[in-house]
Amino acid sequence: MEQQLKKNELAQWLYGITGATILSVSLIGHVGELKTNITDPFKLASALEQPAPFFSEGPYLVEYHPSSDQNGTDQTPSYAHFAMAITSKAEFNHHRGSYLGGYDALMRELSGFEYLANISSGLSGPTGSLLILIPQDPKELLRLRLALEEYSIMYAFPDGSGTLNLANLKMGRGLRV
Asked: How is domain 79-171 classified at the CATH fold level?
């Protein structure tokens, strides 16, 4: 099934479809691409409600599979459950085939994590703004932190303030050749 909604409508709608599985979310008429591997409607709604300016107002087209299971998640993740990252990949004008940035490596490292990403394609390569659901397992949390530190341009983990600020925004090493 499909549904087309604005960002604020989408979040509210997602809270109401308990038990459904999200198959895809696309941003209609946008140059970039929206990627997610979050299939739980509550987690996706929470990600869309985060104070992240890189997700536009829409409209969004959602493909989903309804479920007869109405025993959904009781708890919606808050900002305290998401990390943020910015990544990019750019090709050098005078050295075709040589790239700057950790975009490819970061996306590979995040394949085992749930995330929502806004990917914009530029002339020299993609730029991604991501919200990543923080894992509960301490080993996975460490793996996430190390991946963001190594491959993102900048990243942030929540500090309890509910905002991205200088106290929790860190520079990554993702702008290396």
From this structure: Alpha-Beta Plaits (3.30.70)
